[in-house]
Amino acid sequence: MKILIIGGGGREHALAWRLSKSPQVRGIIASPGNPGIAQVATCVAAPADVSGYADIAQARGVDLTIVGPEAPLVAGIVDQFNRRRLKIIGPTQAAARLEGSKIFAKQFFERAGIPTARSVQASSLNEAIEALKQFALPVVIKADGLAAGKGVVIAQDRDEAKQAIAHLGPNVVIEEFLEGEEVSFMGLSNGNVLFPLAPTQDHKRIFDGDQGPNTGGMGAYSDPRILTPAQNGDIMERIMLPAIGHMRQEGTPFTGFLYAGLMMTEDGPKVLEFNVRLGDPETQALMHSFRGDFAEMLTLAANGTGGISGRAWGGCSVCVVLAAQGYPHAPMSGDAITGIAEAEAMGATVFQAGTKQKCGQLFTSGGRVLGVTAGGETLPYAIEQAYAAVEKVQFRGMHYRKDIGQKGLRRW
Within this chain, do residues 81 and 154 fall inside the same structural domain, yes or no? Predict the structure, then answer.
């Protein structure tokens, strides 16, 4: 089969890398791709709109398309493909509102009885400021629309909350701050059933110890011990399956990857957000530890058939994101990157995100530049291997968190 991957970041590099190892895959096309993806796929320029991706798929005889980022999904790419009877993994535009609108998502949680933080939705600055009075501090402010993982502010005082509302508004969600440990829980759905992927934990803040502003993600790890079997069952029963079932009941069946950002509270798991695609950088960790045939799993989901089952993960994996100077506010670009081959010689896989190639040399071209990923049978070993490989890579102003996976060590 021939596969088209839409996107050009670390998540898409990880997908291309894993799919290239499937005996079923005879060719991979990526749009727009990146220099790392180009090592295992043919990269083509991104079209002007989502209908152009269907043109690419049709012209190149693509059997299945997988969408990495959220923006094309929210823009209705799946609807475009469905109209042309082209197979694609992802939700329709109507179902993608689960990520495209925080207000829609919170209202859906209420209708479906899915546990989440108490919240108020506001559509004006004055309404939002008035709603602040209903919450203790700290309080969470969320932009309604897409914000590339940066549309959330945890305000420690009233002034900070008002500034966040002014910056993120006018349509915002104000919600209570939940205590607990965050978990990323993803599953692949064919509209009727959902196959859970291995649990992961993202690290969104820029600095060690979860300090500083939110980012798109500074690293992640995958470890079966993140959740107990009972917690896994609870999440499926109270959150994931009700979401799939209720979307189907409302006439907008959900197909593709459903991502639940969870807080494991004393009262059980509660949803912080839903995304309608795989997480980034969680996908780097997931694909590194995947042991099954990922292409086969995607095909079963795209065909709307059952049978998506079986243990597909082995051991633990850790992804450390190397960021450019100035990230997340004003990242620098154009700096030469060295040491990737040396890092991979140690057994790590370096997934490229914000890179460009010129005259055979690799340079930085985005905020999150690389995802250095390594695995092993235990989490301590995976962490050690990942950071040993990180030391081999260099570019001017490179910075990264030193504590990826540390929260998981207490489970070992």
Answer: no
